[in-house]
Each structure stands twice: as structure tokens, then as C-alpha cells.
Amino acid sequence: MASTPSNVTSTKHEQIMQHIQGLKVGTKISVRAVAKHLGVSEGTVYKAFKEAESSGLVSTKERIGTVRIDRKRREALDQLTFGEVAEIVEARLFGGGDGLDKSLHKFVIGAMELEAMMSYIDSGSLLIVGNRVSAHRCALEQGAGVLITGGFEPSAEIVRLADEQGLPVLSSRHDTFTVASMINRAMFDRLIKRKIMLLEDIVTFSKPADVIKSGSNLSDFHRLSRETGNFRFPVLDDRGRVIGMITAMDAMGSADDAAVDRVMTRHPITAAPNITVTSAAHTMAAEGIDLLPIVDRNRKLLGVVTRREVLDAMRFAGKQPESGETFEDLMWSGFIQSESNGTEEASISYRGAITPQMSGALGMASEGLVSTLMMQAARQMIRETGKRDFLLESMTSYYVRPVQIDSEVTIKPKAMELSRKFSKLEIEVLDAKGLAAKAMLTAQMIDPY
Description:
The chain is an alpha+beta fold and 449 residues long. The chain has 4 domains: 4-68, Orthogonal Bundle (Arc Repressor Mutant, subunit A), CATH 1.10.10.10; 74-194, Udp-n-acetylmuramoylalanyl-d-glutamate--2,6- Diaminopimelate Ligase, Chain: A, domain 1 (3-Layer(aba) Sandwich); 200-317, Roll (CBS-domain); 327-446, Roll (Thiol Ester Dehydrase, Chain A), CATH 3.10.129.10. Helix content is 36%, strand content 25%. It has 16 helices and 20 strands. The strands form 5 sheets. A 6-stranded antiparallel β-sheet has the order 15-16-18-19-20-17. The chain has a 5-stranded mixed β-sheet with strand order 4-8-7-6-5, with helices on both faces. A 4-stranded mixed β-sheet has the order 9-10-11-12. The radius of gyration is 28 Å and the shape is flat.
């Protein structure tokens, strides 16, 4: 009797998820409406909504509500949807809610005559304009969304046309310049995010992983090992949740009829699909894990990733062209490499200027920025000499004296210890007066082989 409520809840949960999946993209939904339609409690629907949002089936936005969406594709991450623009600029939706999930490829500022403006507008674009009804109408007729600035509201005619076309009409209290700046910043951030690789980018979740079911014995483990050539598998319960890991080491010395549940490692380390590949690599290296299960919020298995796949992905990502500069990229962009090959020991150093943007509260170079430059120099040296990268473990910085703005500095990283797994470096920052800062850095190497 005790298991009955759990089974009923599970069935209702699945019904709610199936109901959401069956809705047309762009449909607005609410907890109360779904609960009434399916005859379930609002609490059960709320939990399902949270899972649907994390799975990319719905999106909940302020002033808009919860909307059925398509799963976001990482390869199109740099393209904002109209719904995301509405959230960024704190806009209110007046019409065309069915088009919130559509992507926009550009935005046009309507600060010109109507005829000239229309030559820039095409399907999938967004017109940012004030209270110009004729421009609103023409944009919608050409397949573009409309964002009205200054807090103005669209006319009833424009709202009706937006609903007919399935194109959103939004209104924001911000002025045109502010709105354009906010959208441009968001697009630039998307370019940066696109080069950050996640586990979901490298794992094919549609391909079933090799697993052992709870209740199996070691003869099943040995048989699966012979069939696949692998020696470690996740152990799943009857609901597909990861409850353990079984390896050849765990099975060693036990009879074939021994239960897997008795020898497996319980509560294994797992990862979510939106974890970065770098984070997964650090976890696997630190914990000595060669196979990492990827699970959803309920610990249901989505797939597995090996340490080899993670390291291969990191090397591939490192070879890709930069798309969007981070603050670290911008800091380091003014530094150039120089090598010393004279009578002293050959070494690599980096020269550059401390610009006004690098200043701190006291008008000198920010201490945090100096530390960042030292770490960037160390990373660049490792990449240049060893064709490798590292994960920082610790860094201790010493500031001998302030570094003046507009001064030329030389950063000299020196390897004190460099092995296949670990590195220890000493980094110095010198200006015209000599030593200005120094750091000791220890890191875990990312093995390229």
C-alpha cells in the first residue's frame, strides 16, 4: 500500500510532461489551467513545470508568463529569441505571443524616414522604434517583430496584426539607445558562451549507454564486459536512476553469483548535462574517475562520458577560432611575446602596457588585474612550450610596489616544476624600476595524450 501514492504521482507527472510536449510552440500555459485540465494538484503541476523548464520545453519570463518553446540548440546559441529580448529589455508583450520563440538575426533602429527604414527590415529582424504606428505596421507586414521604446503602447490595430502574423509587439520603458545597447551586449555575450563547451555538446543522449540493472549478479557484469570491452558501468534502479557504479576492481575476488548491489560503489559522482567540459575534466582527474554518468535533476541517467572524450573535446575547443572576447582576452590583447636566447638561459616573456582601463581605486594598476595578467602569462607559456593547458589549483601573489598607469611592463613566467600531471611556476612582473609583483602558481596539467 505504501508504494501506491508514489506510483500515482509518477503517472500524473508523466501525463503532465506528455501534455506539455504535445502543445504547439508558443502556447502560453499556467499551472492552474493545466491542473484543472488534467485533474491533478497544482503542486504536482508546478514540479513538472520546473522539470520542463530545465529540459528546454517551456520558458517562464516576467511579464510574459510560461510559454511552450523548442529545445534550444547550442549551435544557434548566438541567436536571441524575441522572448529573450523581451526579458533583457524588461519589455511588456502586447501581441504576437506565438512568435516569442522565434530567433531574430538582426535589429534595426528606426531613426530614419519610413521608406529608407523599410529597406533594412526583412523577415526575422526586430524594429526598435518609438511611437510610429506606420512603421509598426510596415515592419509586421514584412515579417519583423516590433519593440516600441519610451514606454509607448501599440494601437489596437497593431496588436491585432501582430496576433495574425505571429510576430511579437513589445514595449519597453527604456529609450532607443539604451535598448539597442542592452541587446547588443547580450548578443556579444552569446558569442562568448558559444565557445564554452558543455557536456551536452559532446554526448549523444539518444545513444543508450551500457548499464547494469540493480538486482543483477556479477555474471551479468562479466558478460557485458566481454560484449562491450568496457570494465565500468553505471548501476540503475527500476526507474532508471543511477544508484551506483560497478568496475572490474569492485568485482575482483567475488563469486559470479554475488549480487552487484553488494559490491558496487554507492552514491557515485555524477554530472548535469549543462556542466562545462573543463569542470568535468577537473572532477574526473581529481577523483580518479574514467567514466562519468550524466543525469537529470532526478538522477535519471541521460548518458555517460569518458575521460578520453572530455580531454579530446577540450583539445578540439582550444583549436577553434575565438568568437567574442572576454575581459581576460581584452586585458591580454596588448601583450606580445619576446624570447631571450643570449648568454642567459633561454626564456619566454611578455611585454605590454598598463592602460587606464586597468586602473584600480587608487589610480594604480588593479591588484586583481596584475594577478590575472600573471596567470595569463603562465597559461600562454604552457601552451607555447608544451602544447597543453592547465587547471589552476592555487596561486599566491606578492605585490612589491604599485604599478603605474601607462607604464610598460614585462611578465616573466618560469617553470619550477613541470611534469605530465602537475606544474609549479614562478611569475614576475617588472617595470622600469624593477620587480613590481611576483606569484607562485601550482596547477594540474591537462594531459593531451
